[in-house]
Structure formats: C-alpha cells, structure tokens
C-alpha cells in the first residue's frame, strides 16, 4: 500500500509500504477514507534532521474497519470510525480521568512500530479504546467535519475547556491556523460572546469571523497586545487560547490576558523556557492546556458535528490524493493552503 | 511613633516616624497589637540596593482601630481588626471576583505614601474594604493564629485552592518555611490525605507533620523528584504547592507533579523565565497561583481559626518587641527562627 514517509526537513515522500495487519488481538486495521496534514506536521517538515530510514507520519484519519482483532468489541468490519491523534486504551486511570494522552498503553501515530495516518491503511493498537464509530455518509462536508474530531476541533475545544471559557468569559485566540480557527468555534460553542482573533491572513480571519470571532487583531507583539487591551477597556481577556506554539505567541498571550485569567496552550511549544516571572505571578495568571485528549472529547463534540450545528470541516481549503501529499506539505508550509485533506 | 524602615540589603532600622492620621474619609488608623516578619521581607533584606531615604516595610498586622474616617462603616474605634497583606476596596470588579490583589484602588503596604506594617500604628487606606473585624482576645496563641490570616495561612490556602486540592488529590508542598507549612495545613483542611512535604529542617518538618504532612522528603533536585515519584507509584502528585519562589523549587515542582496535575506557586518567583516547554505541554501540567488575595479568604478561614480547629499561629517560634526587629530579620535570614512575631 501507499503511505507517507518523512526523511527530514522538506523531504516527504509517498512510498510503497507493507500492508498492515492485525498483530495483537486488541488491534484493528482501518482502510483510510480521509486523512489530512496538520500544522504540527510542519515542525518536522521544517527542522527534522535527515535520516536514511524515514519515519511514517500523519495522525488524523477516519476510515472503514477492515479487520478487527479477536478482543475488539466496540467496532467491527465495515464500520466507519474516526481515530484521535493519540491511541489509548480508554480504561487506565488516566483515560478514566479524561487524560487519554497520558494513557499507560497509548502512544503516538508514526512512533516506532506504529503506522502513520497519512497512508491507505493503518494498524490501530488498542482499537476498542481508540476508535469511535460514526454513521456512514457520502456527504463530503460532513466527512470533513468528522475528520476534525481527530485533532483540530478537539484541540481547539481542549484549549477552550481548560481555559474555562463560558458565556461570561472574554476570549483571545492567538493564531489563525486550523487549530486557532477551531478554537474560535469551540469558544463560541461554549458560549463566549466576545472572541478576539489574532491573525493576519484575511481568508483565515474571515473564516474566523464566520466561526464566531467578534474582533480581528492583525498586529503582533506589543502592538497586538495594545490592541487587545484597547478592545477590552485596558484589561485583556479572561481567556487566551494560544494556538501557535512559538515563544512570541505565548508572550502575546501573557500580554493579552486579564489579571486572574488563563492562557491555555495547544500549539506545541517550540521553546524550553518561557516568561512566567513576577508579572505572571502578581497577576495570578494561570497557564494550562497541553496535548489534547481528543478521544475524551469526541463523544461530546460528535453530536453537534453530526447534526450540522457546527462545521469545523470548513478549515479544509484543499483536497488532494495520496500521491500529492508532498505538494500538500509544501502548500501548507508556504501558507498557500490552510489545511489540506487527503482523499482516498 | 516607632516603625521599621529598610535602607538596603542587611540594613533594617527602627526609627521615629510621624504618627499616622486619617487623610481620606475612607482611611482608618490602626494601633498595631501584633505584626510579624515575612519570608518575602527577606528578599529585599538580601538584595535591595542601598538608599538614603529608606522604605517602610512589613505587611502583616492586626490591631485596634484608633480612628476611622467619616466614610468608614464596617469598623469603628476600639475594634480589633486584621489587615490582609494588600489593601483593597472590596467593591471593584476584581474584588467582586475574589481577586483583591488586583483591586483597582488597592496596593501594597510600604509602597509610596503608604505605611508599612512593622510599626506602632498604620494608616489603612480603603479601611472598609481592607479590614476584617475580629473578637477581642488576650489569648496569645489565638492572636498568633489570627495574625496568619493576614498572609501566610491565606497564602497557603490560595496555593491549595488554586491547585484544586480536595480529598481525592495527592499533594506535594515544596518548602518548609512558614508559607509551606501553612500550605500543608490548608491542604489538610481541604481534605487531602496524602501530603508530601519537601524540606530539610527537622523542627519545621516536624511541625509540618503535626499540620498534616504524611511524608517528608529532605532530598532536593533530581533526588527529591525521584523520592516523590517513588512515594507515588512513579506518578508524582496531583497538586504541587510551590512555596519558595526559586527556580530550583519550581523545577522540583515540575518534576514532582502528575500528568494532568497542577503546580500552584505562592513563593514570589525570583526568576523571569521558567521551564514550561514540551515536557509540561505533553503532560498537560497547569501552572497557577500567584499573589494571594488574602482578603477574599479571611471570612472563610476565620471561623476555623477562631474556634481553634486550626492553629496556623504555630508557625511563630519567636516573639520580639519593635526595637528588636533588626535582630529578628537577621534571625530569619540565618534560619535560626522560622517566623518572628512582633508584640507591641
């Protein structure tokens, strides 16, 4: 079968790899119907050291169960299923607490001996705990929205939930990538009435407005902070959803959050140390978030996606076939595409 | 009257200063009965640049109202009152949210034109919002415990509350100073059954055990982290209450907290940047806390102090008169005294 393999920065290839098969009784094999490229895939695409052997990549997919191991009970051959971007058993103490990303038997797609999601099929470990069954559909828009449960919509939701967003909180979303826009939608869904989106790509911020952003701030750094403060009577917003991962993005968050407020980070931090000194302390600013336990959120978010109330799939602005994946990476890296779907 | 003035590192003097008087109709003048020296006073005592004019110092006191301005309604001449370590109006939007430390009309004792608390009397701005009336008593132990409402017990409580401590959380307290020990007591009060105290001064950790610590870890750094993990099945504790303020203390917190857990900082950070990179993100660790809104907590904590159920005043191990304050600073700096009370 064909699958995506990354060999280093700028070097993504689509290659013939062995067909996956059930190896453990808790495995399933899923024939992928839709996958996509993530903003976080662009980090290794920008800085991974070159390797000879390459590494499978991709962590968002939905597809049809082709084979299920003997101990798999919740999904069966022929089911349409979505996989969260981390697999997990859904039974350990961390999963029971809703922190599936710390599952004792879980892990990341594309890690050692584990398939990546940007390929024709995937062996899914801990299939019972990982996969969530969806109704069959041919509706392209619905499939796209279902696919976002795998990562970006769940991740945006994690940012909003951990930041305590509700109808009384004002919100700043830092970043107009797919996660940032999903965070806008998630904040709106949780009742936020004032949502400031920090971003400068008009097509994206327009989608942000459609998703619920009430204000767009295109300035960055100190100017961006000043603008958010100007919009909020000098105070900043109760919640900041930091959806980029760079240190300047976090610093904008610190500058934009209200005293007593919360910055939730869902962009993978590209820094080891950050500004959490006396200013953060004096203002009782909370820093939270992290890698989103998508599996925990899918059951809650699914209903609103299936009935069309929310359409997070609008973040996809390009659909390609598997052979075009290298070009898809390039398009996202060049910011020509917001988020690229892969159709099989 | 006599009051404490700091002129620089190591240079604390007791001097004659003008008697305070009501300046605004919202002021009161309080004749101090008990004050004390705080661990945080030791930061300027260790590193404040020398000045000619000096600066009033001290932020914890209780005393008798001597005069109340015409607009003061909640306390009157003759009342015994306690002042939290930040004054506040108790009516602005931040106060209404319980964040009195961000009060729009509040500020710190010892700042410009505001008296310090280590003196015979204090002009209290925003007296209605700041002061809390207490029953008169001659009981030395009760007076000591009442005095801790001003800062250390409220601060320990803030750490425990913001870290979400309850009967289901395991807790690590970093630091066996007066705030650390108060945090142990506060965690116990909120129901925590497993409280690991990191500290190496036996007299202090013994008081920690009396306050509710179930384990004491005297090791520091990586060894200390390994010990906490060993005590918790490799996981770390749900909550870490960081009561020191140094970067190594925060790093121990990061190493000792469980995935999905919370580090609450109540020690004033002596660093601008801290480790909040990929490890913190991957493990969904929350960093919270800050300068404690003691005024918000006093009404809740007061009952348990007044009826003797909790005796946070045990952190005082030395009582001195006002003229001995310089020696009191030295004793705390030398770690000969845990916390020094000043009796007037």
Automatic annotation (TrEMBL), chains A, B:
GO molecular function, one term: metal ion binding
PANTHER family: DEHYDROGENASE, ZINC-CONTAINING, PUTATIVE (AFU_ORTHOLOGUE AFUA_2G02810)-RELATED, ZINC-TYPE ALCOHOL DEHYDROGENASE-LIKE
Keywords linked to the UniProt accession: Metal-binding, Zinc
Pfam families xrefs: ADH_N, ADH_zinc_N
SUPFAM superfamilies: GroES-like, NAD(P)-binding Rossmann-fold domains
Domain Alcohol dehydrogenase-like C-terminal: 178-302
Classification via InterPro entries: ADH-like_C (IPR013149), ADH-like_N (IPR013154), GroES-like_sf (IPR011032), NAD(P)-bd_dom_sf (IPR036291)
Origin: domain of life: Bacteria
Cofactor: Zn(2+)
Residue span, Alcohol dehydrogenase-like N-terminal domain: 25-135
The protein's name in its UniProt record: Threonine dehydrogenase
